[in-house]
Amino acid sequence: MNRRNFIYLLGCGCLSAGFTSCSSVPITDRRQFKIIPEANINAKASKLYEKIKEKEKLSNDINTLNKIKNIGSKIEYSISEYFLSKNNPDPTANFNWEYILIDNDKVKNAWCMPGGKIAIYTGILKMTKNDNGLAAVMGHEIAHAVAKHSVERASRGVLLNTGTAIIDIATGGKISQVNRSTGMNTVGLLSQIGIMNPFNRKQESEADYLGLIFSSLAGYDIRETVKVWERMKEANKGKEPPEFMSTHPSSANRINTISEWINEIIIKYPPIA
Ligand SMILES: [Zn+2]
Description:
Number of helices: 13
Strand content: 5-15%
Distance between the termini: 47 Å
Structural class: mainly alpha
Helix content: 40-55%
Number of strands: 5
Largest sheet: 3 strands, mixed
Bound molecules: zinc ion
Radius of gyration: 18 Å
């Protein structure tokens, strides 16, 4: 092996060229290290999702839930169609999509578990305001799942077998704090698959980029994304800052980076009819 190849492999965290644990993120082509089977993580997520449904109060606002499902199914369809059109494998082929609306106005957050299990808290609706805003947040969360960020993180040995207590210590007690201030009784459960822990900056940026693409393909006006981030930033100054901001630590130039991507993405990824 020559030196150049060696460095290349090291950069990916792979030790041998035949190692199948190396793959790359669709569209961005970033190489990632995945040693834990996706199916294991999806199965775990699916079980946790059932527990969340039992423990949290689900909203009976059927209209909003239908709106969420409608936006979600457009995004689902667009992702599959896009990869099909490029003759590439559909990264969501083994997803089992599901959507819930959790009745908690205090929690301004949303997440998508590995395998496509999505939750929106009623509190974030004040931030998203309209369908385009909701599509922006959903596109971003779905992008984390499509890019298999949890699989990647778990493969780095951080998560699956780590108890909540340890994660809580590592995050300076942030989980307990969220628990107390929002009355979310499932924070501990969610931390088991890292939903309440921030992804790293590279993954966040990648979710921003892919999220814009997915929303655009689904026919939404992605210019609203910038407005959603501005509303988040504004709310972050209040005494009840959005959980979205603690699980999505934002760099000063995040909004600028997103704005710079928008025009190109609108042209390059038009709606899939
Ligand atoms: Zn994110």
